[in-house]
């Protein structure tokens, strides 16, 4: 129960493969109260595994918000604070989407209007969220703000396309806003750089299975599963990590520090 008494907002639970889904379940299991949110389109998903079924299961509100729209974010924050009867302790930004990848555009022929939209959804939304939280002074002192990222921000994975730049920007926003939140409220802001994971966003990338297999063989401990990522997120929301801020934290079974692994050659 390391989150007992804490209150948080979780973005990005689309279905039961989503990393945010596992984080939401574990937050509640560890004693937190949460509000779920996602883009309005996610609320129209059919089937047994969608944000509404998760909200029912966890007995928590689910509030639609397009993370690129300040009005939506402000409404979400106001409604969450009204629900909690006070400020928020933690927030997870688990949002990513590339329009150019969706439209199969090669990196050397990207559409720049699509690119701007991808950056707005995947990175600028994080600044918009933090700025809205900042202005409303919505986060308790010693709170924790977290976003999910990928090592494609530092190294080239050609099929990751414009998401490389999107994630670089996301990580930079965490550092820059981490300064301000730290100075004012001792609030920490970090990104977790997760292994490739079989989710809707992940499988949108060309050759994703090969990607996953390569990383699995390269990493001494193997790819970190979504559930383990959720466990790491929980530790960062808990009081055990209060001085960890402005960091990009690799959660990847060791992949990020490998040069060559004979396991790959042996295959
Ligand atoms: P997912 O597809 O389940 O989650 C992506 C979420 O973004 C969805 O819930 C989607 O509805 C939401 N979203 C898209 N546009 C939005 C908008 N305008 N407003 C609000 N929400 C919006 O996939 P996954 O993998 O759980 O992705 C979560 C995060 O983890 C993303 O930031 C992703 O880049 C990151 N990540 C994923 C990896 C993977 O291999 N799956 C590896 C490393 C990081």
UniProtKB/TrEMBL annotation:
Cite the Pfam families for this sequence: adh_short_C2
Record SUPFAM superfamilies: NAD(P)-binding Rossmann-fold domains
Regarding protein family, the annotation reads: Belongs to the short-chain dehydrogenases/reductases (SDR) family. FabI subfamily.
Its top-level enzyme class, in one word, is oxidoreductase
Task: Provide the residue positions that the database annotates as binding NAD(+).
Answer: 12, 18-19, 95, 167
Q: Which UniProt keywords apply?
A: Fatty acid biosynthesis, Fatty acid metabolism, Lipid biosynthesis, Lipid metabolism, NAD, Oxidoreductase
Q: Which reaction does it catalyse?
A: a 2,3-saturated acyl-[ACP] + NAD(+) = a (2E)-enoyl-[ACP] + NADH + H(+)
Q: What is this protein called?
A: Enoyl-[acyl-carrier-protein] reductase [NADH]
Gene3D superfamilies, alphabetically?
Answer: NAD(P)-binding Rossmann-like Domain
- So what EC number does this one have? 1.3.1.9
Q: Which organism is it from?
A: Aureispira anguillae
Which BP terms does GO give this entry? fatty acid biosynthetic process
Which GO molecular function annotations are given, in alphabetical order?
enoyl-[acyl-carrier-protein] reductase (NADH) activity
Pathway in which this enzyme or protein is active: Lipid metabolism; fatty acid biosynthesis
InterPro entries registered for this protein in UniProt: Enoyl-ACP_Rdtase_NADH, NAD(P)-bd_dom_sf, SDR_fam
Q: What's the domain of life for this entry? A: Bacteria
Give the positions the UniProt entry annotates as the active site: 150 (proton acceptor), 160 (proton acceptor)
């Amino acid at each position: 129960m390391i989150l007992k008494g804490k209150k948080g907002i979780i973005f990005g639970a689309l279905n039961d493969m989503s990393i945010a889904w596992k984080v939401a379940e574990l937050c509640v299991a560890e004693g937190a109260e949460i509000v779920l949110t996602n883009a309005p389109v996610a609320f129209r998903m059919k089937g047994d595994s969608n944000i509404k079924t998760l909200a029912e299961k966890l007995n928590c509100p689910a509030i639609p918000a397009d993370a690129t729209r300040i009005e939506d974010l402000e409404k979400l924050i106001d409604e969450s604070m009204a629900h909690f009867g006070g400020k928020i302790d933690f927030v997870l930004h688990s949002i990513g989407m590339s329009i150019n990848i969706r439209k199969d555009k090669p990196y050397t022929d990207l559409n720049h209007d699509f690119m701007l939209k991808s950056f707005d959804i995947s990175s600028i939304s994080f600044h918009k969220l933090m700025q809205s939280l900042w202005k409303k002074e919505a986060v308790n002192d010693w709170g924790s703000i977290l976003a999910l990222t990928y090592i494609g921000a530092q190294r080239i994975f050609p099929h990751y396309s414009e998401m490389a730049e999107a994630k670089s920007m996301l990580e930079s926003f965490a550092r820059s806003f981490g300064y301000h939140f730290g100075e004012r409220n001792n609030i920490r802001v970090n990104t977790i750089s997760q292994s490739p994971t079989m989710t809707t966003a992940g499988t949108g990338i060309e050759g994703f299975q090969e990607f996953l297999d390569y990383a699995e063989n390269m990493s001494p401990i193997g790819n970190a599963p979504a559930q383990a990522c959720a466990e790491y997120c929980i530790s960062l929301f808990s009081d055990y990590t209060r001085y960890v801020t402005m960091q990009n934290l690799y959660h990847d079974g060791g992949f990020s520090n490998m040069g060559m692994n004979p396991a790959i050659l042996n295959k």
